[in-house]
């Protein structure tokens, strides 16, 4: 559904993007991860036909974005990180305006708009003026606007930016519904835990370069050469900490009130051997397990800010 090949964007002497390559299949929810200024918004603006690339190609639904921008715009719903709303319009008028812009007949809009308001949980705000809505409500209204022409692809740039925790949860639930509807979604965020439950694949971008991409589980497995073992004992925790620092495959040990955290590079056999050794030395082990790697760990490790640094 989305194909990017050797995509670059240069502003003067500054390379915002450097030879980005990316393929996103139909129905996939793709998380675009990276710090502010990494190149996420630039990539999405190119896909939305708002910015011309310096070189390379980008296709949406088979249409090259620079050659067939009108066809691409029919296929996408684009939600920028900063968007404008028309304060003097009511919510329902706002959606009618955009529906008319897509040449949707009024009879169809009359049926469609209540469904969109229901989807984004704004049915009770249909007659409210846009400027009276909270930021979270405006974000959801903008998402409804993106859906008014039933696009196949949604390009959402930091959709949860600036939202309070409740509004973020509401936005996440809406995106889950859109995923179930079969939409292809590319969503960017620097708030990493928000993406973990939603995305099928991620791409990590830094300084305009795609440093990793693929299924979250695959990337996590690639990073499991560096594990964190979490060990709890009934007593002798300080003594155990000192013992572990001298063991093979251990690159770091941290002790706190939740137990001992061990940076470990060995495999399952080495883990079993270490546990056996601890028991034979009489350490009263309550639990010995490998901590799960989350999306934030993935990002930190890939961008060289991970364990052991």
Could you please describe the fold and organization of this structure?
The protein has helices spanning 40-47, 69-75, 91-101, 106-119, 135-147, 165-180, 193-196, 216-222, 237-245, 268-280, 295-302, and strands at residues 2-11, 14-24, 29-33, 55-60, 63-64, 76-79, 153-157, 184-189, 201-206, 209-215, 227-233, 250-256, 259-264, 285-290. It has 309 residues and is an alpha/beta fold. The protein folds into 2 domains: 2-214, Rossmann fold; 226-302, Alpha-Beta Plaits (2-Layer Sandwich). The strands form 3 sheets. A 6-stranded mixed β-sheet has the order 6-7-8-3-9-10. Strands 2-1-4-5 form a 4-stranded antiparallel β-sheet, with helices on one face. The model is unreliable at 305-309 (pLDDT under 50). Keywords: ATP-binding, Nucleotide-binding, Transport. Residues 2-232 form the ABC transporter domain. It holds the Pfam family ABC_tran.
CATH architecture of the largest domain: 3-Layer(aba) Sandwich
Q: Compute the number of helices.
A: 11
Note the overall shape.
elongated
Helix content: 25-40%
CATH superfamily of the largest domain: P-loop containing nucleotide triphosphate hydrolases
Rg over CA atoms, rounded to whole Å, is 24 Å
CATH topology of the largest domain: Rossmann fold
Order of adjacent strands in the largest pleated sheet:
6-7-8-3-9-10
String of helices and strands: EEEHEEHEHHHEHEHEEHEHEEHEH
**Share of residues in strands:** 25-35%
Structural class: alpha/beta
Task: Tell how many strands the DSSP assignment holds.
Answer: 14
Give the biggest beta sheet: 6 strands, mixed
- As for the number of domains, it is 2
CATH class of the largest domain, anyone?
Alpha Beta
Spans where pLDDT lies below 50 across 5 or more residues: 305-309
Domain ABC transporter: 2-232
InterPro entries: AAA+_ATPase, ABC_transporter-like_ATP-bd, DrrA1/2-like_C, P-loop_NTPase
GO molecular function: ATP binding; ATP hydrolysis activity
Family: Belongs to the ABC transporter superfamily.
